[in-house]
Amino acid sequence: MTTTAGRTPPGAAGVAERVRAAARDDRPGTAGTRRAFFLVMLSAAAVVFLYPFVWLVVASLKPRDRTFADPFLPWPHPFAPENYANVWDAAPMLAWLFNTVVVGVTAALTVTVSSAFVAFGFAYFRFPGRGLLFGSVLATMMLPAAVTLVPTYLIWNSAGLTGTQVPLWAGNLFGSAFYIFLLRQFFLGIPRYVFEAARVDGASYLDLFWRIALPLGRPALIIAFVFELKASWFDLMKPLIYLQDPALFTLPRGLKAVVDQFYQGGDPKWEIVLAASVITTLPLVVVFFAGQRYFVQGIATTGQKG
Questions:
Q1: Alpha-carbon distance 113 to 173, whole Å?
Q2: What stretches of 190-303 show up as alpha helix (H) in DSSP?
Q3: Nearest 5°: phi and psi at 78?
Q4: CA 17 to chain centre
Q5: How many secondary structure helices (H) and strands (E) does the chain include?
Q6: Minimal CA–CA distance to 182: which of 242, 120, 244?
Q7: Cα 112 → chain centroid
Q8: pTM of the entire structure?
Q9: Rounded CA gap, 89 and 197, in Å?
Q10: pLDDT digits (tens, 9 = 90+) for 199-250
Q11: In whole angstroms, what separates CA 281 from the centre of its chain?
Q12: Cys bridge to 203: 12, 143, 198, 302, which one at CB 3.0-4.6 A?
C-alpha cells in the first residue's frame, strides 16, 4: 500500500496523537497539579484522623466547666495543666500502667512467637492436606468473639485462673489465625534455596526457624507485635470479665472504674478521665513512631508470594 508523500497514515496519526497526549500529561505543570491535589487530599485526611486526638489533648487541659466547650478551639482557654497532676491522686495510674505494660508485652510476645512458629510450618513444609488445614485455621477468623466468650471463661474458671491476669495473655500461646496468615505470606517471600542451603550445611528445622526465618522476617514480626500490643493495650472486655481486684486492673479497666466511681458520687470529673485517656494513648503513639520504618516495610513486602 502506498501513501502520498508528506501525509501520515491514519494508524500512525492515531499513535502520534496518543504520544502527544501522554507528553502533555507529563509536562511539569500537569505533574505539579497532580502533586498538589494529592497533597491537599492527604492533608485533609490527616486533619480528619488527627482531630479526635487533638480534641482529646485540648479538652484534657481545660477546667471542668469548660471541658466540652469550644470543641474547635485549637488551644485550651483557660489553661488547666493541673488536671494531669490530679490524675495520679484520683487513681493508682502508675500501678495500672505497669499492669498494662506487663500484660500487653507478654500478650504481644507470646502471640508473635507462637504464630511465627505455625506460620513457618505452613510456609516451609509440603505435606498432603496442607491447604485444607491452613484454610481451617483461617476459618476460625469467621467466629465472632462473643461465640467463644462463655466457653473460654468456663475453661479459665475451671483452671482456677479467673481473678488473675493470666487469661488476658495466655490464650496467645496458641497463636492467632490473622498473624499466622500474615507471617506465612512473608515467609513465603524468602527464597527457598536459602533454607535448602542451610539444610545442606547440617542445619535442623529449628535452626531454619530461629536463625533464618525469624531474622529475615523481622518487619512482619514487628507488625504482629505492634498490632497485638495495641489490641491488648486498649482491651476492656477481658479485664472487665476476669479482673475484680483494683490492684490488677489495666488502664482501660481502671478508667472504667474511675468513670463508674464518679457517676456513683454524682460528680463526673471528665477532665480527669480525659487526662487519663491521653496518658493511656501516648505510649502507643511513641511505639508506632519508633517502629514506623519496620511497620511500613513489613506492610509493603508482606503477601508478595503465596
A1: 8
A2: 192-200, 205-207, 214-216, 218-233, 237-242, 251-264, 270-290, 292-301
A3: -75, 160
A4: 48
A5: 15, 0
A6: 120
A7: 13
A8: 0.81
A9: 61
A10: 999 999 999 999 999 999 888 898 899 999 999 999 999 999 999 999 999 9
A11: 13
A12: 198
